[in-house]
């Protein structure tokens, strides 16, 4: 059996699955230490099912924790960026296409140092170790420890990024360094952006994932912990600490896969309203519609393979302002059960409005009895408009579409939404994310360099694909449901024999008996 | 006459991506640069061919190289301004206007940045009505206008001047120089007078791409089908719908060359499109029959968003619609076809105007 857990900004959900059957589920508030929430969610699931720790084969955890940090611009670490490329690329410096608010959060620690490669592996300029050391010292002096390093054509040659990373670690022993070649593909700006996103959530990631592990340790679960990635596959905890950016879109992926699984609907818009954010995506033939070349995370352009979703700051914990009416993006998050009016707190949240409007029955209704009726109506209409606008934005034609509403915050809006043909609320809708995590796909990746003079390209590609599929099946995928999702080729013309680097990724559904 | 503002750059980029026929460089990067430059120096005056004096003196600016390099090395804007100014110095005369050599991709946006930085007007016309991978392939060549004197510059500080006996030699030399410069070089070329441009250019093309881009933005806001909007705005013809299953790409002779194989979906299930490109898309075969042939334009659009997909962004798994757009009539003359038709690129295929194939 497997436990799927979703740690959101507000609630922690858990679901116990036996194959594709949902045995039981639970929902508890996320706690400040994260651990407490996971413990109580898992404890509830255990109490409800009587499952023993040794019956659990795997724990699959999805989290929007890091995405929320970026969307809200909170808990991000000031981050320095060193790009190796001067004298090329100087007209468009690092962070050039970032929103101002995030640029302010990260601080002005960007450098373009001499270095970088041409397409054929020649150097644009030699790396100047002293220059990198000077950058690192300036970074150290400003107290910044998160550092992203990018380099022109680093997918062709990783050496300069690695040398620069080593120098930065020498100068700043506590630095968390992200080198762009480890996470991105060709395209300097989106690859560099991804590296910066990774660096600015790296401290939070380490704290959070360590507390996940601690929580499960206390529970005496021996099963391995996996985190779900953007493409719906799993990674181990150690890898997730190094590359939290790979989880940034896992929330929408999990909720869409969960929504498709729960509703059995193949073509629909999915709106997942959590405690802090809402994600809207589109199911086409049962699969999340993928974004094209570039995707935006918190308005930052990256080039990951991700579902095409639109996220904005509306959730059960969103703070409400009355004049003018504004909901989110600031959220009380997991403190909803302390700070929300219905829980006896003193901050007006979206949940309080939903309770006052009679849409939800949460906490104690009498605490919102005194709210102005007009305000409640105005805010309710405002929230429905926010959701309807987002749905509208994701549609490719103006016809009304069915909408699957999932997530605990989906009680904020009623069933009459403009532009929709029907609103579907499947069973277990509030834990769709945790279910998506529990049914995560398994992936197999190969990264191999061929000499095309010795192995023809077609054969090389075929070989790499076959290997990726075999790896996926070995990792537990059912043989009839494996597909190739990504093929990436980079000619390495500086190596002899017409070298070609081929990266292939295959994914498949877990065998239902697993 | 009108002014090009920061807000126009997005529409210009969308439209340029469509007429870029897969090439001309990543329009997003061009847009970022132009927005930044206009913010710093102010809007750019756009003047029609009929508004310029016969003795106006202009040059084009363009990146020469492989578009796939631009997404890594971005654009060396200082080198571009340097190339333009070193051509002025060599000719002993100041230019009074800037004109785009091609109206597709980043190369149609770069002249806006140069015009802004140097406070010169941009002429509402170009030398192709599309994007092409080689320097001689402009309508100006058909009228005997020389690409040289031409200046080239790189980010390292190298710059040089070419003077050649004809535009084909210019291509040959500039390609090997561009390759040495890292398959991306800044160039200022085709110095020409107002009267020369008036008889040889494709008119109103800047306005045309902005209108196409605006139609796309409006359609997107209104949730109209973007692909249909593009077809309407360009008099285009729908060719194919499918999923990219293979991209063969290499940097060769200073160009990005390759083939993209698209497996049919929907009405096209069971069919296969193979698209050949050399920076720009050149010819599209469906099950070995040519369905669109250069100089007509072939553009791939993302099936979900309607965004044009340039050749450097082609990737396994994309769902795309292929469309064809009729080229400027100058390319359909015997001289035009000899210069920029299928035979020039080594294809033994008869050119039939795309609207007659459909």
Short description:
The complex is a heterodimer of chains A (514) and B (358). With 514 residues, chain A is of the alpha/beta class.
- Count every helix of chain A, treating DSSP H or I runs of 4 or more residues as helices: 14
Q: How many domain units of chain B?
A: 2
> Beta fraction of the residues of chain B?
25-35%
Radius of gyration of chain A: 24 Å
Largest sheet of chain B: 9 strands, mixed
CATH superfamily label of the largest domain in chain B: CV3147-like domain
β-strand percent of chain A reads 25-35%
Number of strands of chain B: 16
Cα-to-Cα separation, first versus last residue of chain B: 37 Å
How many beta-strand runs of chain A? Answer: 23
Structural class of chain B: alpha+beta
Q: What is the approximate shape of chain B? A: globular
Supply the CATH class of the largest domain in chain B: Alpha Beta
Spatial shape of chain A: globular
Largest interface: A-B, 43 and 42 residues
Low-confidence stretches of chain B: none
How do the helices and strands follow one another from N- to C-terminus of chain B? EHHEEHHEHEHEEHEHEHHEEEEEEEHH
- Into which percent range does the helicity of residues of chain A fall? 25-40%
Radius of gyration of chain B: 19 Å
Report low-confidence residues of chain A grouped into runs of 5 or more.
none
């Amino acid at each position: 059996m497997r436990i799927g857990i979703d740690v959101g900004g507000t609630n922690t959900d858990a679901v116990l699955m036996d194959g594709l059957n949902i045995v039981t589920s639970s929902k508890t508030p996320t706690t400040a230490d994260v651990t407490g929430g996971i413990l109580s969610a898992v404890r509830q699931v255990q109490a409800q099912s009587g499952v023993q720790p040794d019956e659990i084969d795997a724990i699959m955890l999805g989290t929007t924790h890091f995405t929320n940090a970026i969307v809200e611009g909170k808990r991000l670490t000031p981050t320095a960026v060193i790009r190796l490329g001067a004298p090329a690329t100087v007209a468009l410096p690092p962070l050039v296409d970032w929103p101002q608010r995030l640029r302010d959060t990260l601080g002005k620690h960007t450098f373009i140092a001499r270095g970088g490669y041409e397409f054929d592996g020649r150097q644009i300029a030699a790396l100047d170790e002293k220059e990198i050391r000077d950058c690192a010292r300036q970074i150290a002096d400003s107290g910044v420890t998160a550092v992203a390093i990018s380099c022109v054509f680093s997918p062709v040659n990783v050496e300069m990024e690695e040398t620069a990373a080593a120098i930065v670690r020498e100068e700043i022993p506590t630095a968390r360094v992200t080198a762009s070649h480890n996470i991105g593909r060709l395209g300097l700006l989106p690859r560099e952006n991804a590296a910066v996103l990774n660096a600015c959530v790296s401290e939070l990631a380490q704290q959070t994932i360590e507390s996940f592990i601690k929580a499960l340790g206390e529970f005496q679960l021996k099963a391995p912990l996996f985190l779900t990635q953007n493409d719906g596959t799993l990674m181990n905890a150690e890898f997730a600490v190094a590359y939290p950016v790979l989880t940034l879109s896992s929330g929408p992926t999990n909720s869409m896969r969960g929504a498709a699984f729960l509703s059995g609907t193949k073509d629909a818009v999915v709106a997942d309203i959590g405690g802090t954010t809402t994600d809207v995506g589109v199911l086409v033939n049962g699969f999340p519609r993928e974004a094209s070349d570039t995707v935006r995370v918190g308005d930052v352009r990256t080039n990951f393979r991700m579902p095409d979703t639109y996220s904005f700051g509306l959730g059960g914990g969103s703070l409400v302002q009355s004049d003018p009416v504004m909901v989110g993006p600031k959220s009380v998050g997991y403190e909803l059960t302390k700070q929300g009016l219905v829980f006896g707190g003193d901050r007006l949240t979206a949940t309080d409005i939903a309770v006052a409007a009679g849409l939800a029955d949460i906490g104690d209704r009498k605490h919102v009895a005194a709210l102005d009726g007009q305000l409640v109506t105005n805010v309710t209409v405002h929230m429905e408009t926010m959701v309807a606008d987002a749905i509208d934005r994701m549609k490719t034609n103006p016809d009304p579409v069915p909408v699957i509403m999932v997530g605990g915050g989906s009680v904020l809006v009623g069933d009459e939404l403009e532009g929709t043909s029907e609103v579907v609320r499947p069973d277990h809708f509030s834990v769709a994310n945790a279910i998506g995590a529990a049914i995560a796909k398994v992936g197999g990746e190969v990264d191999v360099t061929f000499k095309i003079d010795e192995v023809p390209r077609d054969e090389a590609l075929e070989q790499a694909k076959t290997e990726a599929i075999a790896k996926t099946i070995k990792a537990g995928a059912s043989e009839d449901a494996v597909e190739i999702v990504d093929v990436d080729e980079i000619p390495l013309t500086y190596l002899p024999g017409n070298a070609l680097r081929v990266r292939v990724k295959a994914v498949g559904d877990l065998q239902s008996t697993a | 006459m009108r002014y090009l503002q920061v807000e126009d750059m997005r529409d210009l980029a969308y439209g340029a991506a469509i007429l870029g026929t897969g090439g001309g460089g990543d329009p997003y990067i061009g847009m970022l640069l132009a927005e930044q430059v206009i913010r710093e120096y102010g809007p750019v005056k756009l003047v029609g061919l009929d508004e310029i004096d016969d003795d106006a003196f202009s040059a084009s600016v363009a990146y020469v190289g492989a578009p796939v390099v631009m997404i890594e090395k971005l654009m060396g804007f200082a080198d571009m301004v340097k190339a333009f100014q070193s051509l002025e110095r060599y000719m002993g005369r100041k230019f009074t206007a800037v004109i785009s050599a091609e109206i597709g991709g980043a190369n149609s946006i770069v002249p806006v940045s140069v015009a802004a930085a140097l406070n010169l007007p941009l002429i509402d016309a170009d030398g192709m009505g599309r994007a092409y991978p080689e320097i001689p392939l402009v309508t100006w060549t058909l009228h005997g206008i020389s690409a040289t004197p031409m200046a080239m510059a790189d980010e390292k500080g190298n710059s040089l001047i070419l003077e050649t006996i004809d535009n084909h030699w210019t291509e040959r030399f500039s390609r090997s120089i561009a390759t040495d410069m890292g398959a991306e070089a800044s160039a200022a070329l085709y110095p020409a007078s107002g009267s020369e441009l008036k008889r040889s250019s494709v008119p109103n093309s800047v306005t045309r791409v902005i209108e196409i881009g605006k139609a796309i933005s409006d359609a997107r806001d209104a949730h109209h089908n973007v692909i249909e909007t593009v077809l309407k705005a360009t008099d285009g013809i729908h060719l194919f719908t499918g999923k990219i299953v293979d991209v063969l790409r290499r940097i060769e002779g200073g160009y990005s060359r390759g083939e993209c194989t698209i497996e049919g979906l929907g009405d096209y299930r069971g069919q296969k499109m193979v698209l050949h490109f050399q920076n720009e898309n050149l010819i599209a075969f469906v099950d070995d029959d040519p369905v669109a042939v250069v100089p007509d334009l072939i553009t791939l659009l993302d099936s979900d968003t309607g965004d044009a997909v340039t050749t450097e962004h082609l990737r396994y798994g994309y769902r795309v619609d292929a469309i064809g757009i009729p080229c400027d009539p100058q390319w359909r003359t015997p001289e035009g076809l000899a210069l920029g038709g299928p035979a020039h690129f080594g294809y033994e295929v008869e050119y039939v105007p795309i609207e007659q194939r459909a």
